[in-house]
Amino acid sequence: MFLTYDITRDETFENLRSWLKEIKQHAAEDVRIYLIGNKSELESAREVNFDRAVEFARQNGIHKCFETSAKTGQNVEEVFSCSGKELYQQVVRE
Q: What is this structure's pTM?
């Protein structure tokens, strides 16, 4: 499950708690959650720093954090590659 926020808009980060609550209510217990800060190309407009996201992830049992840019493609492939590999490994273990 991808939980995404806009690094240039703090309110999107603040809304993560309610989205995380929805995920925990409706998804399987063993769902892997990836926290993704988007719009990394807009560093000068940043309102949410990566350390804050990492701490949020740690406190809430989120599997991994990434920052991406849908505009430039930065880290987008890495997100899908990482999640795909981990999903495959989980299926193989089961």
A: 0.89
